[in-house]
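Tutorial, part two.
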Amino acid sequence: MTSSATSNTLKSLPLEQILTSLSAKQPTPGGGASAALTAAIGAATAQMSAAYTSRKKDKESGAHEKAQALLSHSLPIHSFLRAADEDVAAYSDLQRCWKESDTMGEEEKRRIEERALRIPTELVEECHRSIVDIQEFLPHCNENITSDAKVGVHQLAGAARAAFQTVLVNRPKREERVRLGKLLKEIGKVEEEILGLERDDGDENADSDK
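Running the prediction step on this input gives:
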């Protein structure tokens, strides 16, 4: 990371500086931090749709209450931003682990490796939870802004898949790969549903039967 970025957390930097750091020939920030930042953007985009579900009729129907629940508890924007900084620190520790492999104790090595795996794993899980919460909120969302909630879902889905790539780099156990893979498949089904792809496939099959 550049010297100016080293002394600041990613969340405190201007977007242009973050992108410059990401695109530079340097080890951090990398894919894991990028995934976490993408998740934060997706959560914020979906949160906007909840903020707009505040009309009189939303309050009368109970939709506003569901929107407030989403705003208060379900979209961990700050947690995603924190994960970006944690990923940078974790990868820096991993590099130190490789360089000091002959002198570093086994317990410290294990702790560093477990942390490097835990951060992207939790990111996949958190993205999945957020997507499920947004999906449940969608029927109650201000109908004029549901597309933004859906954009948030797609951004969180991309972040989850990106985080899974970081998980794979850290050599998880097979059962953990399978478990996280199932979460990604569930996310994929949500995306298909909100894009209308399942409906389009059904229409296409019906036309082919004629």
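The first helix runs from residue 3 to 6. In part three we will examine how such features are distributed along the chain.
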